[in-house]
Write a structure and sequence with these properties.
Layout: E1 18-20, E2 32-36, E3 42-48, E4 51-57, E5 64-70, E6 79-84, E7 87-91, E8 97-102, E9 111-114, E10 120-124, E11 128-133, E12 136-142, E13 147-152, H1 155-158, E14 163-167, E15 171-176, E16 179-185, E17 190-195, E18 206-211, E19 216-221, E20 226-232, E21 241-247, E22 256-261, E23 265-270, E24 278-284, E25 289-295, E26 304-309, E27 314-318, H2 336-367, E28 381-388, E29 393-400, E30 404-411, E31 415-418, E32 426-429, H3 434-437, E33 441-446, E34 453-460, E35 466-474, E36 482-488, E37 494-497, E38 507-513, H4 517-527, E39 540-547, E40 553-559, E41 562-567, H5 570-586, E42 591-596, H6 599-636, H7 644-651, H8 653-662, H9 666-683, H10 693-702, H11 705-714
Antiparallel strand pairs: 1-2, 2-3, 3-4, 5-6, 6-7, 7-8, 9-10, 10-11, 11-12, 13-14, 14-15, 15-16, 17-18, 18-19, 19-20, 21-22, 22-23, 23-24, 25-26, 26-27, 28-29, 29-34, 30-33, 30-35, 31-34, 32-33, 35-36, 37-39, 38-41, 38-42, 39-40, 40-41
Helix pairs in contact: 6-8, 6-9, 6-11, 9-10
Length: 715
Amino acid sequence: PAHDCVFPQVGVTAQKTMRLLPASGRKATQKVVVVGDQDGVVTCFGIKKGEAVPVFKTLPGKKIARLELGGALNTPQEKIFVATGSEVRGFTKRGKQFLTFETNLTESIKAMYVHISGADLFLCASYIYNHYCDCKDQNYYLSGDKINDVLCLPVDKVNCITPVLACQDRVLRVLQGSDLLYEVEVPGPATVLALNNGNGGDSGEEVLYGTSDGKLGLIQITGAKPVPKWEIGNEKKRGGILCIDNFDILGDGVKELLVGRDDGVLEIYNFESADDPVLRYDHALSESIASVQGGCVGKDGYDEILASTYSGWLTGLTTEPVHREGGSGEELKLSQEMQSKISSLRSELEHLQMKVHQEREKYQQSSQSSTAVLSVPAFSVNDKFTLNKDDASYSLILEVQTAIDNVLVQSDVPVDLLDVDKNSAVVSFSSCDSEPNSNFLLATYRCQANTTRLELKVRSIEGQYGTLQAYVTPRIQPKTCRVHQYQIKPLSLHQRTHSIDQDRPLNTLMLKGQFSFAEIHSWVVFCLPEVPEKTPAGESVTFYFQNTFLGTQLESTYRKGEGCFKSDNISTISILKDVLSKEATKRKINLNISYDVNEESVRHTLKLIHPKLEYQQLLAKKVHLIDALRELQVHEGNVDFLLPKYRSILEEADQLLEEYKRQPAHLERLYGMITDLFIDKFKFKGTNVKTKVPLLLEILDGCDQDGLIAFFEAA
């Protein structure tokens, strides 16, 4: 049940910026909450009789990126550390500042971990990790991709300092001093780390991780190698994981796993068996959950889960029964305490509404005066644009600190908008002229009242690249809009992977020329998603990719003056050849391009595409039959005379229509890919076969794999 305590709202909060101070004294209840927001304010408050009582509040400053607790070994961890800009500040639980540490980092701190003693600080900017002991620089490491989170195994258990970095390239990097000890491959970009059970388990080596695509796992980080313990996929297609905590909320003596996601879902996993955790409860909030903590806040004897959301709301879920039942047949009545709380909230709300009305009138009068200077209200937008492996589409999530009025989506490249179940906004499309303005999409989403989060899905076409723009207008006066841009890359449906199958038939593209390592890296960044913008350390680098739509692969290896790209899909090689040539020409660099085409790869790619083609053609045929079969059902009264395959179409009609609606233009995309494959195969031979495309489309309608392969080989 929801909490009946009244928590204050703070400013917009970042990930992992809310903590419960540990209980101290004889009463074993945690009554004090501390939270840092993006206005730079640290707010600390306690709860008395269901009301928030301020303990301390700091002045505004730079955005607070992380908030951690520390303290001497075997004492309550009640010293508060906040990372703001490139600085770390420390406060006592009473609000007295005892530390101001200006680091030597040139960027803002993105992740922080404070070791139990408080003497060891582990700080990360985008790519840089630093370890400080007593504010003195100890160790430094430059990561190959962006660092999302950091922690250190407990020194009292493992007897050495072992930092673990969660990186964007689907890897956990385990360090020893300033050196990489080893890398741990995980199933998605890790966004958050936590010690299992809050202390790393019995060995102190157990680390929990959550990924941006919603997966959860446990790995034992031993001194020699990683030992995976369990991994939970994201079968329910929920949001990415932002925060994890361990707390015994069920009171069974075993700590449960509390998980907060960026789609507002709060989950409780427990360990029914000693092995994998099982989802026991979940609760949906309307905003992304930035931090989650378990403890006792509101009422003695009743444990709670406290979550802070993106826009600064604090929400509690309690184990306290909400209703107290009277005798049999009696109506449930609200307690006197609850009734007085409701009436005080109502009067507070009326007071606030009156104040808003007065301020609005004052603003209207001042804005109409001859000397008025209109100020544009600033508002924060939390956005995420990621490729989903499951359906080869991009998710665009927009979250605003206030209610969204509308979002206009514009694209200068062809993209399909896909249906999103959770989306309650009304979408309307405007006709657009693609020729003079390069406008291929103009769609407006009108949101319902109090919508602060909007999720859209788009699918791009590989080889066509440009920019998708979102114009976000919230419900504030005067009307203000923020524009966010997202790059649709030439190979937009490719996703980074740890390895590829080297036994597939591969086509090779070789580049040579007077270009630097940084220049060719910038071209690869331009072509492919999930490549770090920073030029990698070393003389050369290799990245592996998988096409999420078809399952084809790409290996890219390059260094100064040389690049080698291998793929089992000839269209991927063709796109790379065209785009890389264009980028080099822009910089007036002459490229020596050579390629090796493997004829077997075309047959191999067609065999990968064909099952998808067959399925989509069958789905389209079934959907086209539904109306006629339903009409027949109405006329005849029953459908017993129909063949079983037609009866099953009627039985599954709703699911078939839903699936067809969710994947618009899927069949056309497959036709387009096969057509591109046909044109690209002969382009490398110097032959133009565009006149044969109508004949190819006729064969595709027949859906005969052998006939299709024969056409490719005979043309």
